[in-house]
Design a protein that fits this description.
Its cofactor is a divalent metal cation. The chain is of the alpha+beta class and 549 residues long. The protein contains 21 helices and 14 strands.
């Protein structure tokens, strides 16, 4: 497949170069070019038989021009089938191996100036080999020129057929059609990457580029926020496509929640009874039915904007309708961005009527965790971290897939605490290394963690794997530096040694700021909070030393 225009142009350039090389080669090939030495007895016998067969066929043509039409010359591969090729007598070469075909070409070059080997491609893309009679050098030149032109057309046709669905994308773009989607930012980005080129490095550049290709894009998710009646109807409801379809288009399916305040637009679907029953029953997440739901929701939202379809003529361009125009080319970059991207300017602006359901992302407060031994739900991740860092320590957990998650802490310092604590627990051979609250996510010792910058690096890598953990490990394997876990090895080693020596509990500051010098009575008394306290103390001591220097 050649979905991108650049790929198509590159393929056509290569084809033109092959055509030029083929044309020049056919006019400059000398008699001895490409000859192979005949060492095997089988090759010598084969070439002699072919020479005699070709001579017999050619002599018949020259002496009796009409007799060859009904005469088939017997050969070692069965028969020469006599045909016409571009108004010239020819024979089909069927049943020969590639080595034998090379020998045949060699026989023709050495012994017959008026016989030309020609390879073309049929309608089913299978190659067809012929020997064509051409009585003059001028006619031979014309013949080979025709053959090269046919090959060029065939190759160009194959390129055009390989373009596939991009023909549809090009047509939509050239006709400046209104493109309608629901939360379609990622869909548009996918179309761009597959059929236009690599995604631009900035969101502004992407917006301006896609606006040149599709000047009119309507996002039904954004359209739901511009009308108060729709906002009231969708209040406390999911903004998903199926939810919007259920509420706004009750007559289009059998599972409506409650009717909308306006009479629904009647949508007629062409097709037989089987297709109609499929659309009536519903099939969420199937491409055709999702497109149908999007169209229904868009039509109903247009009525809320006081667009009357019965008053529009087929010649009217809905994309330039004054009531709709100010609401198109505005896409939400993500489900929790609280902004819309203006494709015409490339600028983001606050989304009207947005009700934040999730906390805003604070990148300094986020830690990336990946490589879970078993599937762990976001709630389980949040619960086990809260057991160590406190009930309100984690504001949100976003599951990337079954192997990775992003955890946002309330405080930025909790990120370093988590990474250091994880490092201590994994490097310590004691009871707490097994029985600590974080064992749910650190089970197996293969779990990795890092700051949010590492997540950016992994996502921006050229590596592409289905699971995020595999993607991360592939980035590690191909990069010179391993993905950093952002921990202080000296600090971790000191705490680890304190656990091994049995002095960790006594290294924690007492209320008066002094420390006890005796060993722990029982190492099993060590908790994650003790380790965190020692980490904090050691960091403070290290900071004081640095300031005193």
């Amino acid at each position: 497949m050649l979905p991108r225009r650049a790929q198509e142009e590159e393929a056509l350039q290569k084809i033109n170069l092959l055509h030029q090389d083929g044309t020049s080669a056919s006019s400059t090939t000398s008699e001895g070019d490409g000859d192979m030495p005949l060492k095997r007895a089988a090759d010598i016998l084969f070439t002699e038989r072919m020479k005699n067969n070709f001579k017999e066929w050619r002599d018949v043509i020259i002496s009796k021009p009409d007799s060859h039409l009904s005469k088939n010359i017997k050969c070692t591969a069965g028969q020469f089938q006599t045909v016409f090729f571009k108004m010239r007598p020819a024979i089909m070469l069927n049943g020969f191996s590639s080595h034998q075909l090379q020998l045949i070409q060699q026989v023709l070059r050495k012994n017959f100036r008026d016989l030309v080997y020609v390879c073309t491609f049929g309608e089913d893309e299978t190659s067809e080999k012929r020997v064509v009679y051409s009585d003059t050098d001028e006619d031979k030149i014309l013949l080979m020129k025709d053959v090269q032109e046919d090959l060029l057309k065939n190759r160009e046709a194959r390129v055009k057929s390989a373009i596939g669905i991009r023909h549809v994308i090009d047509l939509l773009s050239s006709e400046r059609k209104l493109i309608v989607g629901h939360s379609c930012f990622l869909d548009i980005a996918q179309v761009y990457s597959k059929f236009v080129g690599p995604l631009p490095s900035s969101i502004k550049e992407f917006a301006l580029s896609i606006h040149k290709i599709f000047p009119h894009i309507a996002d039904t998710r954004h359209l739901m926020t511009v009308n108060q009646a729709v906002q009231k109807l969708m209040k406390q409801k999911s903004k998903s496509l199926s939810s919007a379809f259920s509420l706004l288009c009750p007559s289009s399916h059998s599972y409506a929640e409650k009717p909308s305040s306006l009479s629904p637009v009647r949508i007629e679907v062409g097709g037989d009874k089987t297709m109609s029953s499929c659309f009536i029953s519903g099939a969420k997440h199937e491409a055709g039915y999702d497109a149908y739901m999007t169209g229904c929701v868009f039509a109903q939202l247009c009525t809320y904007l006081d667009i009357k379809f019965e008053q529009l003529s087929p010649q009217d361009n809905l994309a330039t309708n004054n009531k709709l125009q100010k609401h198109i080319n505005l896409l939400s970059p993500s489900w929790n961005s609280a902004t819309v991207l203006d494709l015409s300017s490339g600028m983001e602006r606050p989304e009207p009527g947005y009700m934040r359901r999730y906390p805003a992302a604070v990148y300094d407060n986020i830690v990336l965790i990946w490589g879970f031994m078993s599937k762990v739900r976001p709630k389980e991740i949040k619960d086990c971290i809260r057991k160590v860092f406190g009930t309100g320590s984690v504001t949100s957990v976003f599951s990337i897939d079954s192997t990775a998650a992003l955890v946002q802490f309330k405080k930025s310092e909790s990120v370093n605490d988590f990474l250091d604590l994880k490092a201590v627990l994994e490097r310590t051979d004691s009871a707490i290394s097994i029985l600590h609250p974080l064992s749910t996510i650190l089970e197996g010792g293969q779990t990795r963690a890092a700051k949010y910058d590492t997540y950016r690096d992994i996502c921006s890598s050229s590596e592409s794997k289905y699971l995020f953990a595999d993607q991360a490990e592939a980035v590690c394997a191909t990069s010179k530096n391993q993905v950093p876990e952002n921990v202080d090895d000296n600090l971790i080693s000191d705490v680890q040694q304190s656990i091994l020596d049995g002095t960790l509990l006594t290294s924690v500051n007492k209320g008066d700021g002094t420390k006890s010098g005796s060993k722990n009575e029982d190492a099993d008394d060590i908790t994650c909070q003790h380790i965190l306290d020692v980490l904090h103390n050691n960091r403070a001591l290290f900071g004081n030393r640095m300031r005193s220097q």
